[in-house]
Amino acid sequence: QIYVVFSEELKCWCRAVFQSVQCHTVHYQLRCFLVDYAKYSLVESDNIRVPVGVFTRLPYRAKKCSLYCTKPVTLHLDFCENTAKIGPAKRWDTAAIQHFRDLLK
């Protein structure tokens, strides 16, 4: 379900999908994915609204996607045999993600 949230960081209202809720002493904060900006943000519960009318039917500006036929790899070290081989990995490591972001900039 899509909601409208006010992002303090962007200083504007955005469409969002909620990921999780964090309880604080006075208020709740919700971790959400801003669908038009492709970023995650923490939003206070006071800054959440239900979208109305045509606003709900607008296409998202950001889409989750992946690179075609590109799989994560990692360096496997074998200290007994004193070798290093590149092999498949389950996830991209943080250095590879940062390098890809730097290339995009």
UniProtKB/TrEMBL annotation:
Question: Which reaction(s) does its UniProt entry say it catalyses?
Answer: ATP + H2O = ADP + phosphate + H(+)
Q: Which GO terms describe its molecular function?
A: ATP binding; hydrolase activity; RNA helicase activity
Is Nucleotide-binding among this UniProt entry's keywords?
A: yes
- Residue stretches making up the Tudor domain: 3-68
| Pfam families in the record | TUDOR
Keywords from the named record: ATP-binding, Helicase, Hydrolase, Nucleotide-binding, Repeat
The answer to whether keyword rRNA-binding applies is: no
**Where, by residue number, does the polypeptide cross the bilayer?**
none
Q: What GO biological process terms are annotated to this protein in UniProt?
A: germ-line stem cell division
EC number(s) stated in the UniProt entry for this protein: 3.6.4.13
**Top-level taxonomic group:** Eukaryota
Q: What is this protein called?
A: RNA helicase
Which gene specifies this protein's sequence? Answer: Tdrd12
